[in-house]
Amino acid sequence: MLLGLGQTAQVHLARAPDGTRVALKIPKKEVRQDPRLAERFAREVSFSLSLRHPHLVRGLAGVPFGEGAFLALEYFPEGTLEDRLRQGPLPWEEAVKALLHVGEALGFLHERGLLHQDVKPSNVFVGQGVYKLGDLGTLRRVDDPSAEYAGSPHYLAPELFLGARPSPASDAYAFGVLAYEVLTGRRPFQEAAPRQAPRGPARP
């Protein structure tokens, strides 16, 4: 069963050899054939299998490169935080729990010198009262000198649109937008966001 179809991969519901249901992420052909995109998928496989935290989506198995590339992740039948928010804002106690869980995962990444870059409701998965941050394909090192960034326009910190490098502060901004959305049921800024922001160095 197809669970999701994105720009770079398809996600299917599958069963592991032991019968456990998993979310099977398979990169598209054009991703496997593009060196830059293939490297990003391989990085996601590596991070998903090596990083362990109670509030990060757990990678179960994977092949980083080639025609047989895949990533098996734990499956969440309850869906994502985005699915929950379609019904309105979370009750206060549930909202606090969701934000604590996501905040702990984000802090864990920052302590290891990593940025998530794409904190948003559709990347937070829900299961049995636990919230987990997923989509580790956008992770990058804090000390990466490049001004290139990943993320979703509504959750991007303003300085990124001016060419600043991503930082823990830009992750914190996205987390703040997420918190507002969880508590109110809507994003703080409703205007259409630009599809692409300038990526050159900031100018005085």
From TrEMBL:
Nucleotide-binding among keywords: yes
Domain Protein kinase stretches: 1-204
Alphabetized CDD domains for the sequence: STKc_PknB_like
Presence of the UniProt keyword Transcription in the record: no
InterPro entries xref list: Aur-like (IPR030616), Kinase-like_dom_sf (IPR011009), Prot_kinase_dom (IPR000719), Protein_kinase_ATP_BS (IPR017441), Ser/Thr_kinase_AS (IPR008271)
Keywords: ATP-binding, Kinase, Nucleotide-binding, Serine/threonine-protein kinase, Transferase
GO molecular function: ATP binding; protein serine/threonine kinase activity
Positions with a binding annotation for ATP: K29
Gene3D superfamilies in alphabetical order: Transferase(Phosphotransferase) domain 1 (1.10.510.10)
PANTHER family xref list: SERINE/THREONINE-PROTEIN KINASE IAL-RELATED
Record's protein name: Serine/threonine protein kinase, putative
Species of provenance: Thermus thermophilus (strain ATCC 27634 / DSM 579 / HB8)
